[in-house]
Fold this protein.
Amino acid sequence: MRLLLVAGLLSVSFSVAATARFQPVSQLPADAATQQWAQRDPQQTADLCAVANETLKYLNKGPDYDPAAIHGGKIAGVSSSLTRVKATLQFICQIEQADKQANRRSRLTDPAFLQQHFELVRWFPDQAGAAKLSKDKPLLQNLPAERILQTKYFVKQIAGSPQKTADKPQALYGLPFDEQHLSVEQAALQRDRLVRFALGKQQIVQGALETKPAKAPALIWLSREDLEGALLQGTAVVPVNNGYRYFNVHRGNDIPYNRLLKPEQQQRYWYFKEVSGVLGYGKDADDKIPIKPQVTVAGDIAQLGLGKLILLNFTEHGKPVWRLTILADTGGAFANNLYQLDWLAGYYRGWPDYYAANKHRGDYSQAWLLLKK
């Protein structure tokens, strides 16, 4: 489930054909070899492989499972089959493992190696599409002809307690006990009898699920502010000892969001489940792709196709930095959007922490799609 877009949600679709260009090129810029590459950090390369493997598992479900995402791409200028996308993901993990065993710098940071083994397709943004949404959005108004908009998003870190306390009186609840063994389809047939559909958020924050016997498991206890943040973003990360606990939305109460009310006044409510990590795209709540910060981007998977390997070049501290990323997430902002990617920056307590860590990063990127030859 997509989280927050730093540039603001641009979830407006339009019917005009996209004018993005995807142009095969034979080489990367001549100075790329002397510039900084994020994947020179072995952890970055390992994380890239981890996301590649998880995305590959999803692609292996086949187009019939999720035709909107599982395809080779639907963009002019790129000849890409699903088989080729999968081969690309497999190859980068083969290289990551071989380089790790040989105790050498990742060849994925060598422009000559990339040019030898990958078809490089330069992405020029859909300026016409961006212009239609550019009112009061300076980043779109100033979109360069040769760079895509590079927004960033983050996963909110929250403070949790295993027990209810005075400063953490609100639970992040798991699915109610009465439907824990029901599929979504089975639950829909019994909605008149299930707790999930009977209660709004205002009843829940006042303790309706706590009334003995408890009607749902309390996964962790939060402040009201952190509860609202988790409900808004759909993902919560809780630091525990030297690691994290991860929570992702499971099912909702089907009450629509009321734009006339403040977030804390809403009746819409989400039940969560504890998961193994931060999750990106997935058709079903139980089947989302685990993703990692700094190697994951969200974008228009309906046109680009899930699992594309994308090389980005954007400025950090005023200097160009190269990053290999995988398209493993999406959101409402990316309907018919071939001018933007959203880069998962990391885990932060809130906007001040996010801004302090990312204010030195630029707003636009050169971008290339990479496909195994």
